[in-house]
Amino acid sequence: MSLLSHRLEIKVQQKHILSHGLVQMVELLQKNMVELREEIRRELSENPALEESAELGEELTPEEIHAELERLDIKADSADQGVIERFENPAQETDFEADNEPAVRAAPADTEPEPEPAAKTADTFEETDFDFNDFLDPGYRTPASEPSDKPSFETFLSSPVTLAKHLESQMALIAIPAAVREAADSIIGNLDDNGYLSGSLATLAEQDGHRLTDLEAALKEVQGLDPAGIGARDLRECLLLQLDGRLEGSVAWKIVHNHLNLVASHRFADLARAMGRPLDHIVIAMKVIRRLDPYPGQRHMPSAAKPVVPDVYIRRDDGGGYLIDLNDDDVPQLRLNSSYRRMLDRDQAPDKEVRNYVRERYASALMLMKNIEQRRQTIRRVCEVIVDRQGEFLDQGIDWLRPMMIKDVAGEIGVHPSTVSRAVANKYCHTSHGVFELRYFFSEAVQGVSGASTPLLVLKRKVKKLIDEEDPARPLTDEQLMDRLKAEGIEVTRRTVAKYREDMKIPSTHQRRARNQNSYA
What pLDDT does residue 134 have? Predict the structure, then answer.
């Protein structure tokens, strides 16, 4: 029988500590050019030791940055020491422990011991409450201090009208009981981006505490709002709501209500037989159904344009090769504040607290400049490998794209695959064939009979091209597509062709044949 007892134990443990510089380097590497500019602007506003260089050549070189870091006794973190992958996948850690114990770092040799904190004396300057305008000439007032009756500029800015606001403004004009109005607010809050009601009324009644009868009455009111079809629970109900009223009971209404599955498969002849109507009536009804909106909520979704700014330009030089230019013209060039550099000397700093603050800000500025330069070099090295391996694509076009894996590029430049993955994330490259995302150049290979390899992207393009050029009266089957690809040196199975066809949202042979036979403009 063992007894519980307290005891002291000493053990040696080795761990990786993610310093601020390493975390910042990882974050900067995966930012694109727009995000990098925003990050630098933020650092310029927060760190007084940083300044924007007005002229080229004023910023420090990588060698000067490294020398300054060594002078401050700050160890520069390596770009790829096996820590980055643990930073990305903490569940796979082996010798890295993310505990709550603070990391103990040794102080520099020339650092004085910290004195005991003394009681802070009251500062009469800080206790004084005054207005700076009181010291100005009475005849002068800043523009901010002058009263103005002009309307604010914000009142002229348009704000996007969301679907919820659009529906709530209409509900405010309807006279209904308070319980039904509260139930309608719950229904509006549970509409998805397409305008459909998420979940059943019974679930909504249980969650929000409404009576089922109030929810049913509220749903009827919401479904009568603009746009038509809002508040539906499935596609059939959405289309029927748009056909209700003057078109209720029409051929189009009966088709949606009873035979929506035949509409999806373009089986118009079967649809005419099932309804006992001439084919001409079906054609007219289908024209009406095509004008309906299956996603009525999308028209009120705010659309924000995402700026695409190329991070890299790849241009052909006069010698037949390619030049790699990083798009850093709009990135602020940084330099160090010379006053902070002088204050690092003991005889210049007023006291130890100020000297420690200046040293911290100065070191943070140096680390930022170093990480920006390391980000630039990593992206350049990755692009050099892309140019070397994708030369045929740059010369002749997309059909000559070659397979390339991230791990292969990482092994060639001597970094971890996660570093390459971050270097190409959300970044774009401008070439003579257009602007492409850097991840576009990485694709798995499909081996051909001749030993050559083809990327999956090119294979999908070939499948789509064969289908686009097929005879509409006799669409190609997946097996025929497989044979034609085999004739071009790409050996794949029929199931693989079907999988890629479905990935591109291309209908099957039977569906394409029915659509071509019943296609009406």
Answer: 42
Averaged confidence pLDDT in the chain: 76
Domain boundaries in the chain?
163-300, 445-517
294-333: per-residue pLDDT in tens?
999 888 776 555 667 888 999 888 877 888 988 887 788 8
pLDDT given at position 120: 45
Provide CB contacts within 8 A for 83, sequence distance 6+: 16, 18, 22, 96
What is the distance between the terminal CA atoms of the chain, rounded to a whole angstrom?
A: 89
For residue 158, give every residue at least 6 positions away whose Cβ sits within 8 Å of its Cβ, in sequence order, or none: none
Q: What is the mean pLDDT of residues 14-23?
A: 70
- Burial class of residue 274, CB neighbours in 10 A (0-12, 13-18, 19+): middle
- Report CA 401 to chain centroid distance, whole Å: 25
Rounded Cα–Cα distance for residues 234 and 243 (Å): 15
> How many Å is the maximal CA-CA distance in the chain?
101
What's the Rg (C-alpha) of the chain?
34
Q: Give the single-character DSSP code of 149.
A: -
* pTM, entire model: 0.54
Other CB atoms within 10 Å distance of the CB of residue 375? 22
The CB density around residue 366, as the number of other CB atoms within 10 Å, is 26
Q: Say which CATH topology domain 445-517 has.
A: Arc Repressor Mutant, subunit A (1.10.10)
Q: What is the DSSP string of 171-219?
A: HTTS---HHHHHHHHHHHHTB-TTSPBPS-HHHHHHHH---HHHHHHHH
Q: Is 449 exposed, middle or buried (0-12, 13-18, 19+ CB in 10 A)?
A: exposed
Separation between Cα atoms, residue 421 and residue 373, nearest integer Å? 18
Smallest CA-to-CA distance from 202 within 245, 233, 178 is with 233
Place 453 in a pLDDT band, splitting at 50, 70 and 90.
Answer: low
